[in-house]
Amino acid sequence: MAEPYTGPNLGPLARSGSDDWNEFPEASQASKADDWSAFPEKTTDYKAGAKDVLRSAGTGVVKGVLGLGGLVGDVTDLGAAGIKKATDFVSEQVGVEPYKPSGTSVLENIPTSSSLTKNLESVTGELYKPQTTAGRYAETIGEFLPATIAGPGGVARKVGMQAVIPGAASEAAGQATQGTALEPYARAAAGIAAGAGGALVSRPGNTAQALRSQLPEGITQATVDDARSLMVTAKTKGIDLTWPEALSQVAGRPVLTDTQRILESAPASRTRMQEFYAERPRQVDQAALSEFDQLAPGARSPSQIGPQIGEAAQEHIGDVRKTINKASEPYYKAAEAQLFTPQEFAVIKTIPGYEESLAAVRKAPDAWRIQHLPDNSVGVLDKVKQHFDQQAKNAGSKFNPQQNKSVQASHEMSASATKQSGVAKSADYEIALEIQKQAREQFLDPLLQGPLGRLAKKDVTTQKAIDALFPTNPLPNSHNEVFDAVSALSTKNPGAATQLVRAHMESVFNEATRSLQGGANQFGAAGFAKALVGNIQQRTNLQAAVEALPNGKKLWQGVDNFLEAAEATGTRQAKGSLTAFNAQELKAMAGSGMLGEATKTGLSPGKWWSVVNDKWSQWQLGKNLDELARIFTDPKSAPVLKRIAGMPSGSREAGYLVSRLILQANQASQSREPRRQ
Q1: Cα–Cα distances in angstroms (integers) from residue 609 to residues 211, 578, 664, in the given order
Q2: Is the per-residue pLDDT at 614 higher than 60?
Q3: Highest-confidence range of 367-371, 575-579, 589-593, by mean pLDDT?
Q4: pLDDT tens-digit profile of 253-274?
Q5: Could you tell me if 188 and 665 are in contact, meaning their C-beta atoms sit under 8 angstroms apart?
Q6: Which 3 state secondary structure label does DSSP give 339?
Q7: Partners of 516 in the beta sheet?
């Protein structure tokens, strides 16, 4: 027989320990009818209680989803509210009226969890409110679920560690301080404390686990092999790369760069990282000079490179002209002795300016070329035509102080009429002119309009030659012109051609790597690569120029390897790059209104989050910082990284707590002081 029950409020059941329900007919009937209302002193409706828990949990999940959608607005509200209280306090202390904004703030347009909730309730009606204590706990736990489920790892573990435990703790603290100013802080503190307990379970216990927790998805053992090849290649150039730099370069996205930045800042690993990077500027300088020497030795008289290039360009263009003339010469020879009849020649002499031009060509320095031909020959007529062409060019030149477009047009018309007379008389003359025309359009004009033509101009300097061949914003598909130009220059003067390419690369390097006010330029190599081959056309043009040099393909392989190593150094994040925002903001506030800067900062909640993220990442790495720094800076760590890359990814549940805690604190404050809609 069971011991008599002595608990509260059980009515007749408290009188006896009997298990015979027949002694209590009213209870027996209630049991048969499943109707607990037969006990008016205790009418707890268990079904209603369970229904309240389920509905409250559903409300919590909805609020959690809406909270994530309004996270940016909630963070902005909290920050703006804090700054407003600070400025109001300052105003009160100095005895001035608190600032009251006029008009609508841009912050009004950022959705918050509160505004999203009201928008939803305007369609669905008011969300269900918990009716029992269990319901309130269920609602709070439900609010944590969306942020938790979104993360990686097992669902059951995440629900328990990152929703049930912190949610229950937060609600308990909230009920204990309900209605007081401490409520939002108590809720947040309890949630953080409970969440930290779950985080302790998943904190990496060794270096491999710590590193795997930071390694992004998609980094395979093959990626590690490619990164190692890059590190070896860079080492042959004299540049030591870290694994994050090499992995980021070959993967085309940041890999472990956040972790490396933490290692460069944390006391436990800072010294090792500083010692590694102390040699970087010297390594880059020596590697660059060695690479430039592979192209050409340093010029003793760099100012003479430009004139030498100009002479080579002029010589090449002259050769092209000679080739064209040689092709048409047989037809000119066949046509030059053909004579116009007196009647035909009389008509020709009526062309405006013809007789004056005829007299001029007979007195020209090269008149000996036609001295054996009579005035009425096709050969003399061609010379007169050429004279008209030159007169037209001179009259229309922008360098002519007496430039006259009317005179230019007149000479052009006379040249055309002279040409037509010659064509009408001689088929050979027509063929010769057509050869000249097509050859100029196909070969000569492109040279004159391209980089070689600009190099062939008088008084070209070394800098002008560099600008002509390597403009900072080259035309699309201009690499073919660059290759042809450098090939032509290499044929005429290979030394000057290689010196010009070196001068271009070295001048860009010197500008990009100059020392900064704070010391040596750690990011000079990356700046050099960006300035030299910052866009794909710049890179293609440089490749075309180098490959056009003697032994060019081998030279380019070396240049390309050096550039890839230089680019890899740029994947490194500057130490403190994400956490120095507070100093930047304080400096900015010193020069402008506090409320204006508060608005700007309020619109950048990611800046606040970066501090939390850095501290969380550093804590999560545990006591493994120095060991991680050793791995990151040692090329022989490839086997370790390949093994880690093959490990399953770790859990990051604890990181998903923070968003819920921010929302919860904001909602608690909104319950006392409603904010924007």
Answers
A1: 22, 10, 16
A2: no
A3: 367-371
A4: 999 998 898 888 888 888 999 9
A5: yes
A6: strand
A7: 519
Q: How far is CA 331 from CA 323, 324, 428, in A?
A: 14, 12, 5
Name residue 519's beta-bridge partners: 516
Please give the single-letter amino acid code of residue 278.
A
The predicted pLDDT at position 196 comes to: 55
* Cα separations in angstroms, 201 against 160, 620, 655: 12, 11, 13
Other CB atoms within a 10 A radius of the CB of residue 535 amount to 12
Predicted structure pTM score: 0.61
**658 pLDDT exceeds 70?**
no
Higher pLDDT, 111 or 2: 111
Average pLDDT, the chain: 77
* Residue 606 three-state SS: helix
Contact residues for 113 (Cβ-Cβ < 8 A; gap 6+): 63, 66, 67, 69, 70, 71, 73, 74, 663, 666, 667
Which pLDDT band, with edges at 50, 70 and 90, does 145 fall under? low
- Nearest in space to 561 (alpha carbons), one of 278, 245, 293, 232: 232
Indicate left, alpha or beta for 218 from its phi (over 0: left) and psi (-120 to 50: alpha): left
SS (H, E, C) 272-327: HHHHHHHCHHHHHHHHHHHHHHHHCCCCCCHHHHHHHHHHHHHHHHHHHHHHHHHH
User: What is the rounded CA–CA span in Å between residue 225 and residue 238?
Assistant: 20
